[in-house]
Amino acid sequence: MTAKIIDGKAFAARVRAEVAGHVARLKADHGITPGLAVVLVGEDPASEVYVRSKGKSTVEAGMNSYEHKLDAATSEADLLALIGKLNADPAVHGILVQLPLPKHLDSDLVINAIDPAKDVDGFHISNVGLLGTGQKSMVPCTPLGCLMMLRDHHGSLAGMDAVVVGRSNIVGKPMAQLLLGDSCTVTIAHSRTKDLGEVCRRADILVAAVGRPEMIPGDWVKPGATVIDVGINRIERGGKTVLVGDVDFAGAAKVAGAITPVPGGVGPMTIACLLANTLTACCRANGLPEPEGLTA
Ligand SMILES: NC(=O)C1=CN([C@@H]2O[C@H](COP(=O)(O)OP(=O)(O)OC[C@H]3O[C@@H](n4cnc5c(N)ncnc54)[C@H](OP(=O)(O)O)[C@@H]3O)[C@@H](O)[C@H]2O)C=CC1
Ligand SMILES: Nc1nc(=O)c2c([nH]1)NC[C@@H]1CN(c3ccc(C(=O)N[C@@H](CCC(=O)O)C(=O)O)cc3)C=[N+]21
After folding, report:
1. What is the protein's quaternary organization (predicted)?
2. What are the residue ranges in the chain where pLDDT is below 50?
3. What is the pLDDT of residue 212?
């Protein structure tokens, strides 16, 4: 079998266009422009690329983008003061603090200082709790993007066996919650899982969020399964730096029913969902009905 390639880039373009349409209507009918503030502490080159591309997409969707670049040595008090200001600013509907933060900053403390209604990453403990109890929340962008692609491909996910490899707070755990919410039978695997290959081979839906280049070989994939590769790994190959996922794409594509590529899969969907979450936060803040199909 040769897998269908799930085109995250094209899907993301559709989501962004839909968001832009809603933004135009918000402006015309209500005079409101959604605003997203992105906070970057320190000078990680990969993060800077990512923050720039977020800013560009935000503006292209018709929203306001506010970038705050802080020195790597910024104190916790200064960062918390900035978050306080953004929380109080009515022009800012979404706040994203780029992770990881420099080691001297307590990321839990910082994330939990964000107004949950503006927490477009969905990392605040109250959003985590709302998601876990099936209540309306802000849903983390990467897992939300994965869910949208899965629903688009399968329609209903009910009863499917899903395996999520990785248990981070930003990808693995919220991904598992969303799959459970769609009535999958969910297994969460991690670095202490025994017989990971055996576990993966049970999956109708296999989500890899590990951060290890091409660690999942084709023979861990059940024939016909849907593979969602969240990994973003930069490696040297043939004297060039290339981007690869956590899955051996060539091997897995021979067995899977459908697979997301890297680049052009989950990454672009993450950014599209960030814009969608900012729009949703703006609608909620203004007591307006939220657009359908852009949340979980
Ligand atoms: N496309 C996108 O939009 C995004 C992509 N990413 C990418 O996704 C990947 C994962 O990110 P993130 O969740 O933040 O990473 P973390 O490093 O926070 O978590 C990695 C997880 O993988 C598990 N793991 C590590 N090694 C193994 C192994 N050998 N076998 C099984 N499990 C293992 C860890 O287990 P344990 O808990 O036991 O240590 C951990 O739960 C990265 O490549 C990152 O760049 C991240 C965010 C967004
Ligand atoms: N608070 C916070 N929220 C995040 O959502 C967050 C974060 N911090 N820190 C870093 C990770 C990583 N992440 C990516 C998003 C998009 C691409 C993306 O668009 N990737 C393109 C390729 C881009 C390239 O070429 O480098 C693709 O896969 O096609 C990648 C990675 C979000 N993260």
Report:
1. Homodimer.
2. none
3. 98
Query: Which residues of the chain are in CATH 3.40.50.10860 domains?
Result: 30-115
135 is catalytic: no
CA-wise closest residue to 266 among 225, 221, 233, 223: 233
In this prediction the ipTM stands at: 0.98
Please give the helix or strand (H or E) that residue 237 lies within, else none: strand 233-237
- Measured in Å, residue 28 CA sits from the centre of ligand 2 at 32
Q: Is the omega angle on the peptide bond into residue 100 within 30 degrees of 0, that is, cis?
A: yes
Looking at the DSSP bridge assignments, the partners of residue 242 are 235
Element (H, E) at 206: strand 205-208
Domain 141-268 has CATH 3.40.50.720: yes
Q: How far is CA 128 from CA 25, 124, 188, 205, 231, in A?
A: 30, 6, 17, 23, 22
The catalytic position among 118, 119, 121, 204 is 121
CATH 3.40.50.720 domain residues, the chain: 141-268
CA distance 253 to 1: 8
pLDDT of 120 reads 98
Question: What is the whole-number distance in angstroms between the Cα of residue 233 and the centre of ligand 1?
Answer: 10
pTM over the 0.90 mark = yes
Q: What local confidence, expressed as pLDDT, does residue 228 receive?
A: 99
> Residue 44: its pLDDT value, please?
84
Q: What is the CATH number of domain 30-115?
A: 3.40.50.10860
Q: Is the dihedral of CA 196, 199, 200, 201 positive or negative?
A: positive
3-state secondary structure of 66: strand
pLDDT given at position 191 = 98
- The reported pLDDT for the residue numbered 264 is 98
Q: What is the pLDDT of residue 255?
A: 98
